[in-house]
Amino acid sequence: MRTRSYSYQRSHQLRWLWACMLVGVFVCGGATCVGRSRPKNDVFAPPVVFQQPPSLQELTNFVNRSLKLERLECNNLSITSPEITGKLNGDLVWERPRNFKFSAYFGPRMFGGPVLAAGSNDEMFWMQTTVPPPPTLVYANHEQFNSQAGPRKILPVSPLWLREALGVVEIDPTLIHEGPHIQSDGRVALHTQFPTHRGIYTRVLVFDASHATIQETRLYDPTNKLIAHAHQSEHWYSSEIDMSLPLRVDVQLYPDEGPKLAFTIEVGFYLLNEPSSASPSTFAMPETTGISTYDLVQLNQSNQAVLATPPTYTQANPVIRSTLVNQRTFR
After folding, report:
1. Rounded to 5°, angle at Cα 124 from 82 and 127
2. Number of structural domains the chain divides into
3. Where is average pLDDT lowest: 44-58, 154-168, 315-329?
4. Are the C-beta atoms of residues 237 and 244 closer than 8 Å to each other?
5. pLDDT single digits (tens) 134-150
6. Which of 211, 219, 229, 320 is most buried per CB count within 10 Å?
7. Predicted structure pTM score
């Protein structure tokens, strides 16, 4: 295979584009379309859930209502970042546990093709960008990325973690938890340890004490270094799943090399659990002829990027996944 220098500028640019794609995957849910201009103090405002601080069992029962979410769609989301001028507009479809397809545009889509097209299936995830030239695609096998030792230069977490940043989380009662306890600001915090191939990660969820909306998600690596932080706000209540999702999320990621990555997601409207019209090819990686293609696992190993040929993916028959183990977003 040929090798090609992989500049810091392109690495940093792909990192924020990659994150924009991945957060877009999980920002939409709901049985009906609801605009962000809808008043907060109406039937879509989060209801009071707890009259007093919840026990671990009570909080687990409430948070795991998210398992009712099987399929999300959104045709109106925006992503902004200090790295770009203006904003990206996008649309997507996501199905549990790992299927999604996403496209993002500068301005209305009628004015040109997507600057970012991305997706995932049970085997791998990928991102394709057209700016700056030449067109570039980065991909990785889920399990190889999750189990890879050493520094993570572009993304500090598995991309699937980002659905947790957007309030779609589960609490596994078989794991080790600390709390919930009341913080000095009156909010409720729950610490959870996740054993992975790389060591024990710690997740911290911070809830509103009465509405139980998730307001912060923090993830620490085995050295207790903060590697990912999300601040959720402007929550919208869905009666179909009986829980609230944020309409705005501010995210910061801290890779092992380079500066932090910061971006904001704003949701236009939600669609939840509508019948799927996806074909077997919907979640397959696009044709890579004429596109510079790189394996993200190899990029983490060296500053020299090897042009790679991704494996062929054939979608298997749907499998029912109901256990919490199958819902974990990082290993």
Report:
1. 30
2. 1
3. 315-329
4. yes
5. 888 888 999 998 888 88
6. 219
7. 0.80
Asked if residue 208 is part of any domain, the answer here is yes
101 pLDDT more than 50: yes
CATH of the domain at 99: 2.50.20.10
> What integer best gives the mean pLDDT of the chain?
79
Q: Is residue 30 part of a domain?
A: yes
Q: What does the block give as tokens for 237?
A: 């209540």
Q: How many other C-beta atoms lie within 10 A of the C-beta of residue 205?
A: 22
**pLDDT exceeds 60 at position 36:** no
**Where are the extended beta strands (E) located within the chain?**
3-5, 71-80, 88-95, 99-106, 116-120, 124-129, 136-141, 176-182, 188-196, 199-207, 214-220, 226-238, 243-253, 261-267, 271-272, 292-295, 304-306
Tell me the C-alpha distance between 167 and 64, whole Å. Answer: 11
Distance of CA 203 to the CA centre of its chain: 15
Domain extent at residue 304: 3-311
**Rounded to whole angstroms, how far apart are CA atoms 93 and 120?**
11
Residue 185's Cβ-count burial label (10 Å; 0-12, 13-18, 19+) is exposed
- The answer to whether residue 324 sits within a structural domain is no
Between the two ends of the chain, the Cα-to-Cα distance in Å is: 30
